[in-house]
Design goal:
heterotetramer, A: 343 residues, Rossmann fold, seven-stranded mixed β-sheet, five-stranded mixed β-sheet, B: alpha/beta, two-stranded antiparallel ribbon, 43% helix, binds thiamine diphosphate, binds magnesium ion
């Protein structure tokens, strides 16, 4: 019989994010939150309309009730203006958490992220800091088609000045979001929408997972699988099935995509000599090719087999469920890739 | 209105088709049959049809995430649309686009669009093209009250003015963007006035009144065809369902919905044309029946239609591209 | 105008400093001394100073590619600016930003900006911050006639209206965006009217008349400080030099330039204050001399200042980041 | 005594681009050109103002005179609207060539490129084509600071549906631009502004360099340098200096970044066994890491030494000339990297 410890109570990924926001807002009144419908019904003073949505998938629900509409602020559909407002507020003493509903909407506001938030500190000779968090949703599998399902976090990783994180489970979601909010640099916080309902043990109270540190949720010495966000779960499924045929898989969950925990990745590659990278983002100029490049430049002599990538194809995300399921990397594809490195 | 009987019948048929299509989706979504985000147009039919009844296949429209009504109004085949919404191979986009991306370029329908404000720049381009190709074709650019705040929409209005493009900007003010009233999101709250700041004629019309919409549309389109540039129409309307299916609609009141439903565009149209003896009620009833059968058939066909082949995952990305690079850096998965 | 003598003297000193700074850059650029793209503000001094003379260090401004005038008006040190333009270590941004990115956050100067329309969203943010921090500080958002067409600018106006932010939007209509007259680029040609479409008070003023600018500015800023939201000011002005240094200015005529030069803001200011006995001509002459010496010194110092150290290439990217990843995937170059 | 053949007359990179535009406009009246000040003084009917600029660096100068303002069209500063107009015009029968002045401005219009141009064909089930060319400037070295000097073509490579080219010399500039205009897919055409005054032999008349084919401007069997755009020149300088100590360098000029000519790259790696990649873009999620990933996944067994990358650092482009010169890869750094692979 198992007893659930209080410190290990189980909540969902969605709840973990909500909790981190709640705690950080309570801790620091410079933290404010804004985005489209993050509370809901901003036009109405009626109680029955209050907090009508809490974001399109309910992640920020309840925060306006706890912290007031003065700190949980709905916006018009005007991403350039309000994400830029996040930058301007961050540069002048606030610590805003703004929501870019889906990461695929980056194109309507990218300038404020890559040319303002990311470059200001450098262009100003270090005389500015931008403690801004941009929360956004990634991930295919929601039947939401090409513009609402892709995961181009690689674009953010490309631009110096940004940090990028992508938690794979509720505890990391809570801890990394707290770290992102406390960080003095702009952080893109990528929530995988397919994980929102996933439960997991999450420490209560303040909990911080440092940026830039990968985790190794499964140790093994035959092969290293480096995975991101929802693909960590896919890696576990693959590892389970490989275990039954005696293959010991080590899984590295990157967690932070920028900065990368190169030490953990390289140590694992040096240990296992075999590398498979699993990423649901498109393959060109991606975090997946970065990991392969890391191996090729810094661990080649340890590699016993060619590196294997398992990613989405170089296509937009299709709508049809059968196609979308074929788009996202599967445990079967990962198993095959691992087997190829062992051949 | 100078519409002949045939045009009136056709307009009714299209409005009725939209309503039937959307009501059916509402029902089937609740039944768990339909994947993804589905945004219904029910309630707003008079806008799409009032505009599109003036158009031919050479004219273009751009649309939004709430695109079914625009598609039907522009003559896109409902069977293909329904199959698309179910993600099936015979869908308008072979199942690759879904509800938010239904398109039919040959019919002049440049796609529903998942990006709020995605359409206006495209509309400028189609209008520029119409002009450069020496046609008198026009482009109708549909967007919402929420979209009227998006930079791309505002830029599009300015560019259309500068280039004197044959575009009619149609803001479907259905009161809300998701949960947010335009009274909050639109600074100044007067959307039509905003367009005047871009130097274009601008008018607000009752979007529940087909004849009011069609009249404003007729003038704007004629102006565009004459090469006199863009016009803005704010059509005040309402969506009967939630923002998308599954929305609990906690941000507005039932009474508000009722007050709009009591002015329903279809009932009013029927009332007007029958009371004026323009079309017989029996003829409209016949349309209702035919449309219901058409949509029923579309659902039946969609349900039994085949899924897209897995090979189609990597087709249609480019006109011309090395196949091997569609699975770049990796082995193409073996399908079993 | 209710400005006291000290304020008038200070306003003159700042305008004069801008003029001297820019004229000097014009000369030295032609001599080949100055790297990069340099956009001069000469001619427009009354706008920046007319606005900023109402501000304290706790107030913010956002700027443009043509930012020197805004910087000086907001009190940024000219020696640091000059060194920055030469890319030297003691520059305001340690040589990393250059003419297009001079900033001084402590002085409330949020940076010149190389992106047309980059400033308005930032201005909304600084204003939100001022509000949330419980101050009565305001933000002045400077941008050009060309920028008035950019979506980010238009979005910023709407957001400021919705959130009732303490922002004053100042469109410096100097007639051109690069080679393009606002008469072409601004549909409807009335920039101030456009702002009214966003529900905010909007006024056009003679941007060559310091007193007209300062008066409009005073009202707008007071309104913002009272928490009544944004105001728009179109200041009609002219740039004396080309779009950037090196521009052959083939798109406008010498006579047009002369007609603006004949209404030069500095001469008019001098004329007004001396004829009304508010400030003695001799005092203004003394300022002219002091400013000339200050700029001369700034150039001398900039020329002899050291270059930034090569190590600074990779500092200031982040507050906190692993140093090894600033040369990711490769060996850090060996400097000799 | 050398005679210059007519077919090999020498013109600059700028002139080569202008010539390609001129020829393609003459050839096909669906080709139209628009962007900010691409002609100049659009407000004026006066002859003395006509064609006042021809683009900010004079690349399109003269085209309005030859083809008329009806086809060379100035725009307001409104990149989302006019690049989106390019997409809409391309979808409806035109073949527009639009100018995004600097690639760093991608952020103000990216949605129309990545969510509309790139995805339309796929989302519409193949029932649309978008024959659009977006000309844009890349490249550091112009003392133009962080927002006007970076080269993030990798972002465009990342998104399926786009093609990306980056010519390194005048002949390729002419030939690739012609190919891009004739291509039925959206192509991002990256002009390196530092190369505009570079002269080179360019065939007269119609001249097409197919997309997706790298060139090998220098053959050698000791080491492969894969380079892009202006870095090809840097690679040549490095190769010259290496030659003096007996190292035979092969240079692969990618020319097309998407699609990649993987065959040529892999053949060269297999031949030399050593790979150095030179790219002035930032390193994370870049074309450079893609080439390393290509080697790690498909040519590892041929590699005699770890792959070496020589790129810009993970920083914005600094303004100060001394810093900017240290930012851009130099021949010295390339030589060092090559020597390391030979050690
Ligand atoms: C750029 C962008 N931002 C946000 C969204 C999310 N979103 C989808 S529809 C919508 C509301 C649109 O409101 P409106 O324009 O009034 O159209 P309506 O839904 O009322 O028809 C929002 C915010 C989006 N799809 N694209
Ligand atoms: C987004 C963007 N587009 C284009 C440019 C190139 N550009 C720099 S300044 C300028 C003209 C700006 O005109 P205006 O806003 O009137 O300001 P002015 O130069 O007259 O002060 C242009 C097109 C840019 N820097 N950023
Ligand atoms: Mg709406
Ligand atoms: Mg101007």
């Amino acid at each position: 019989m198992t007893t659930i410890e209080l410190s290990q109570r189980t909540i969902t990924y969605r709840e973990a994010i909500n909790e981190a926001l709640d705690l950080e807002m309570a801790r620091d009144d410079r933290v404010i939150l804004f985005g489209e419908d993050v509370s809901g019904a901003p036009h109405s003073e009626e109680e029955r309309h209050f907090d009508a949505w809490g974001g399109v998938l309910g992640v920020t629900k309840g925060l306006a009730g706890k912290h007031g509409r003065e700190r949980v602020i709905d916006t018009p559909i005007t991403e350039s203006a309000f994400i830029g407002a996040g930058v301007g507020a961050a540069a002048t003493g606030m610590r805003p958490v703004v929501e870019l509903m889906f990461i695929g909407f980056m194109g309507v506001c990218l300038d404020q992220i890559i040319n303002q938030a990311a470059k200001m500190r450098y262009m100003f000779g270090g005389k500015a800091k931008i403690p801004l968090v941009i929360r956004t949703m990634t991930g295919a599998g929601f039947r939401a088609a090409a513009q609402h399902s892709d995961s181009p976090y690689s674009t953010f990783c490309h631009f110096p000045g940004l940090k990028v994180v992508a938690p794979s489970n509720p505890a990391d979601a809570k801890g990394l979001l707290a770290a992102a909010i406390r960080d003095d640099d702009p952080v893109i916080f990528c929530e995988n929408k397919v994980l929102y309902d996933t439960p997991g043990p999450v420490p209560e109270g303040e909990y911080v997972v440092p940026l830039g540190e990968a985790s190794v949720p499964r140790e093994g010495d035959d092969v290293t699988i480096v995975a991101i966000s929802r693909m960590v779960g896919v890696a576990h499924q693959a590892a389970d099935s490989l275990a039954s045929s005696g293959v010991n898989t080590e899984i590295v969950d990157l967690r932070s995509l920028a900065p990368l925990d190169t030490d953990t990745v390289l140590a694992s590659i040096r240990k296992t000599g075999r590398l498979v990278v699993v990423d649901e983002d498109n393959p060109r100029c991606s975090v997946a090719t970065d990991i392969a490049a890391l191996a090729a430049t810094q661990a080649m002599e340890y590699l016993a087999a060619p590196v294997k990538l398992v990613t989405a194809p170089h296509t937009p995300v299709p709508f049809s469920p059968v196609l979308e399921d074929a788009y996202v990397p599967t445990p079967e594809r990962v198993v095959e890739a691992v087997r190829a490195t062992l051949a | 209105m100078d519409m002949d009987r045939n045009s009136l019948v056709e307009a009714y048929r299209r409005m009725r088709t939209i309503r039937e299509f959307e009501d059916r989706l509402h029902k089937d979504f609740a039944g768990g049959e339909i994947p993804g985000f589905v945004h219904l147009y029910a309630g707003e039919e008079a806008v799409a049809v009032g505009l599109c009844s003036h158009l031919g296949d050479g004219d273009f429209i751009t649309s939004t995430h709430r695109g079914h009504g625009h598609c039907i109004a522009k003559g896109v085949d409902t069977a293909g649309m329904m199959a698309e919404i179910y993600g099936k191979a015979p869908g308008s986009c072979n199942g690759k686009g879904g509800s938010m991306h239904i398109a039919d370029v040959d019919k002049g329908m440049l796609g529903a669009n998942g990006i709020v404000g995605g359409g206006p720049p495209l509309a400028c381009g189609a209008a520029l093209s119409a002009k450069k190709r020496g046609t008198d074709n026009v482009v109708i650019c549909f967007f919402g009250d929420g979209a009227s705040n998006q930079g791309t929409t505002l830029e599009g209005m300015n560019l259309a003015g500068v280039w004197k493009l044959p575009v009619v900007f149609v803001c479907e003010n259905n009161g809300y963007a998701e949960t947010t009233s335009y009274k909050y999101s639109v600074s100044g709250t007067d959307i039509a006035a905003r367009a005047r700041g871009f130097g274009m004629p601008s008018v607000a019309v009752d979007g529940l009144d087909f004849f009011a919409v069609a009249e404003a549309a007729g003038e704007a389109i004629a102006r565009a065809r004459r090469g006199e540039g863009p016009t803005f129409i704010e059509a005040q309307t309402y969506r009967y369902y939630g923002h998308f299916e599954g929305d609990s609609i906690a941000y507005r009141d039932r009474e508000e919905e009722e007050s709009f439903r009591s002015r329903d565009c279809l009932s009013r149209f029927r009332q007007t044309v029958t009371s004026q003896g323009l079309v017989e009620a029996a003829d409209l009833d016949a349309i209702d029946g035919a449309v219901a059968a058409e949509i029923e058939q579309a659902v039946t066909d969609a349900l039994s239609a085949p899924d897209p082949s897995l090979d189609s995952l990597t087709t249609d990305v480019y006109v011309d591209f090395p196949a091997s690079q569609l699975w770049m850096f990796q082995d193409e998965p073996v399908r079993v």
